[in-house]
Design goal:
single chain; 809 residues; alpha+beta; Alpha-Beta Plaits; 6 domains; 7-stranded mixed beta sheet; 29 helices; elongated
Length: 809
């Protein structure tokens, strides 16, 4: 014991601590046990810490350049029990857990989808982005304050995902893996917290206003005024310490990170008013304004609660999509029996059964000949659509007729519906509106603080009046809440509305640009056409077939049985004729044709070179020829049919249209004539890019495509669209994906883009006009603090409500 005491005494002498019964921990301020001799170096001296945990956390904070944290903190730091929570982030390095929220971009790069609590303005998003971009290995950060989500790309060899969570935690925000199933729960929890803070502020404000009325109206005797002041102080404390805590926390967090946000001036106003009233109560001099503190806080919280409800509406759209997919599926076993299994456990290639009236548990290809399916959750169309054998069907859609079986193509998070639900439109920093709003909001808060200080000085020292309340009015009235909300709320609402219609927006900049396009270019195969070959018509040369429909169908069924052994796209044209015919001795010549035997008869199906037979000159354009033995049986013309809505979509567009295709001249010309489009054929991927660049010299150009050969031109376009059947790489490069597969959605994009631009302009105009109007009134002491805080709250609310118009279909 003596050695321990001597050790502490020596430590106190070395570090400059005043001798006392015990030392306080530099990090958590708890008492340092007598037998602990640990320290950290700060402020050019050694400072005692109580344990290894506090030592590690303190050294991390100091090494990161956040020493000002210890200077400005208003509460003690987390003890080791709380600090140890940082170690819980290590569990997110487990591959099994990462599968829930992390996408592998390449062998060395990944992207995490993270939900962040505590954001409520663009400044919060900016702060998080800047902090994460300082970390070596982080390549890209996109934060959406409206949906409270962040998408972070990083190089795996330089840091782990737990490092990202720790970095976000360090600056005061709470991060979680984004899980669609938990999003609605988190919004409900935050809604409950809002209601509690609003309830406390409302109840206390009513009592404080009654006391203020009694004091100011003179209905009480002077000797009771001091008592009423102290009662008002006691009633204000729950509002100041509990209800206003999120406002103070946000403002302090910004200051500690050497920046400002819209909560800084508001925090100064509330704190200044409370401290002035507290001083007046203790010294029994001057006026008290506890009713102002309570009213400021209540109105601010009410405004933010309504803003939160708007965010919840957007989140509910996403969360409700998840509920459309059933949890279980009926799996068909190899012996033909059926068993119940988890829908998320399904794997591609398995066969499942769906009963009439049930929702489909996975994406897949229809095995039955035909059925009707309600796809309103993707397309918005209330009428069921007919599906035929081999057609793609989607999880979450409702089977309207008969029991069917389908081959699973995607399950769980890979389904089209969940891809739409889990997507989050990124508000691009290249947007003209984003640039204006960000610059204005960034400098406006600093300008407000300066103007408030000048207002106080002028009124207090030059005009001989009370400069305190004009300063408070300036701080509150000109808070740029509406300006910060003007753009992100509108863009998020627009993207959410389109998501409900099966249109996935990857970049809001493209959505903003769409209505400004001068030209929209289209690929042909798989974009304007279905991308699947079909039999256009047949010409029969054999006398036995010329007048016999049954014999023609018989031969087509035999051909279909042989073609079923081929993976070539041409084979898909014969699927409607597949039967139980037994064929044998199949032989495939790549790129030319296929042959086989049926009832000991030799059939060859392929191009003219393959069958090696004299073709009549008038039928040289046919794609497929059939021979039986040495006899030429017939010629088959194939076509790639147009999508049903191609023509109507194009006729509704007001911009210039052009068809850019890599296909042969004759096939492109045929489609272009049907759609009345100018066209260019035989273009390589590089040729398409060069043609697009040339078009961009005359204005903004968009591109709609689907294949691998469209990847380069999609990336070059000012706004790019990929259709539902596009390659994965095309979808990655596209700004917008038509997951519903409907080309008519392009017309929807134009109309939504027009509405989005209009509402953003309205929001920005209102926000700027309001602040320009109230600033001189506040400076001249014409605008009282009550009216100022009410106007600021109503201004933010008006912008938010205006943006929700985009949520309507």
């Amino acid at each position: 014991m003596e050695n321990s005491t001597a050790g502490h005494a020596t430590f106190r002498r070395k570090t400059g601590f005043i001798a006392s019964m015990s030392l306080s921990c530099f990090h958590c301020t708890e008492l340092v046990p007598d037998n602990v001799h640990l320290s950290v170096r700060a402020n050019n001296q050694d400072n005692a810490v109580c344990c290894e945990g506090c030592k590690a956390v303190a050294e991390t904070i100091l090494a990161g350049g956040f020493a000002q944290y210890y200077q400005f903190r208003t509460t003690k730091s987390p003890t080791i029990s709380t600090a140890a929570k940082l170690d819980e982030y290590l569990k997110y390095d487990e591959p099994a857990i990462q599968a829930e929220f992390i996408t592998e971009l390449s062998n060395t790069e990944r992207k995490a989808d993270i939900a962040i609590e505590g954001m409520h303005c663009a400044a919060c998003a900016w702060l998080i982005e800047q902090r994460l971009l300082l970390i070596e290995g982080v390549s890209k950060v996109q934060v959406n304050s409206t949906t409270q989500r962040a998408q972070i790309s990083w190089r795996t060899e330089q840091l782990s995902v737990s490092d990202l969570f720790k970095a976000i935690n360090e600056i005061g925000y709470h991060a979680h893996p984004f899980k669609l199933s938990e999003q609605e729960v988190r919004f409900k929890q935050k809604n409950s917290q809002f209601l509690k803070r609003v309830a406390v502020a409302g109840l206390m404000t009513m009592q404080i206003m009654m006391l203020a009325f009694a004091m100011y109206s003179g209905v009480i005797e002077p000797e009771f005024e001091l008592f009423f002041r102290w009662v008002s102080l006691v009633l204000t404390l729950p509002i100041f310490c509990y209800s206003a805590y999120p406002i103070f926390s946000s403002g302090c967090r910004a200051v500690l990170n050497k920046t400002v946000n819209m909560d800084v001036p508001v925090s100064i106003a509330i704190m200044g008013t409370f401290i002035a009233s507290l001083y007046a109560t203790i010294t029994q001099t001057g006026e008290v304004y506890f009713e102002s503190v309570s009213m400021f806080t209540l109105l601010l919280l009410l405004g933010r609660y309504l803003e939160h409800n708007v965010k919840s509406a957007a989140a509910s759209v996403t969360a409700n999509l998840l509920k459309l997919i059933p949890l279980s599926a009926t799996l068909k076993q190899e012996d033909g029996t059926y068993t119940e299994t988890s829908a998320r456990a399904l794997i591609p290639g398995q066969v499942i059964r769906v009963l009439e009236g049930d929702a489909l548990p996975a994406d897949g290809c229809l095995i039955n000949k035909t059925c009707y399916i309600d796809e309103s959750m993707l397309t918005g169309e209330s009428e069921p659509v007919q599906k035929r054998e081999g057609d793609q069907v989607y999880a979450g859609s409702i089977l309207a007729s008969q029991t069917i079986e389908l081959t699973v193509s995607a399950a769980g998070a890979a389904t089209t519906l969940l891809q739409i639900a889990s997507s989050d439109a990124q508000i691009s920093s290249n947007s003209s509106f984003v640039g204006v709003a960000d610059k204005l909001a960034k400098y406006f808060v600093s300008a407000v603080l300066l103007i408030a200080a000048v207002t106080f000085f002028v009124w207090q020292f030059l005009l001989g009046g009370n400069g305190f309340w004009p300063m408070i009015a300036v701080l509150v009235a000109t808070c740029p809440c509406a300006l910060s909300l003007a753009m992100p709320t509108a863009m998020t609402a627009a993207a959410t509305s389109l998501k409900r219609s099966g249109i996935l927006v990857n970049s809001t900049q493209a959505l903003e640009t769409f209505s400004k396009l001068k030209t929209l270019a289209f690929d042909k195969t798989g974009t304007l056409t279905k991308g699947t070959l079909a039999i256009e018509h047949c010409v029969w040369f054999s006398p036995t077939l010329l007048n016999s429909k049954s014999k023609q169908d018989e031969l087509l069924s035999i051909v279909a049985a042989i073609e079923s052994h081929s993976a070539h796209p041409i084979a898909s044209a014969f699927k409607p004729y597949i039967s139980n015919k037994v064929v044998s001795d199949i032989n495939i010549t790549a790129g030319k044709g296929i042959e086989g035997y049926y009832n000991e008869q030799h059939l060859k199906i392929g191009n003219a070179d393959y069958i090696q037979h004299l073709i009549p000159s008038e039928h040289q354009a046919a794609r497929i020829f059939i021979t039986k033995g040495s006899e030429l049986m017939g010629a088959i013309y194939l076509s790639d049919p147009l999508r049903e809505d191609s023509s109507s979509m194009l006729s509704a567009l007001t911009c210039n249209k052009i068809l850019l295709s890599g296909d042969k001249q004759d096939s492109v010309e045929s489609v272009a004539k049907q759609l009345k489009l100018p066209f260019e054929a035989g273009l390589s991927p590089e040729d398409k890019v060069q043609r697009l660049v040339k078009l961009q010299q005359t204005g903004l150009v968009g591109m709609v495509g689907d294949g691998l050969n469209d990847v380069m031109v999609l990336a070059q376009a000012d706004a790019s669209v990929a259709v539902a059947n596009a390659s994965d790489l095309s979808k990655q490069k596209a700004d917008i994906i038509l997951m519903n597969g409907q080309l008519s959605s392009i017309n929807t994009l134009f109309s939504h883009s027009i509405k989005l631009n209009l509402i953003i302009k309205q929001n920005l105009l209102w926000a700027l006009s309001y602040n320009t109007l109230v600033l001189p009134l506040a400076c001249m002491n014409i605008l009282s603090p009550y009216v100022a805080v009410l106007g600021m709250s109503l201004s933010s609310l008006l912008v938010t409500i205006n943006s929700t118009r985009l949520l309507k279909k």
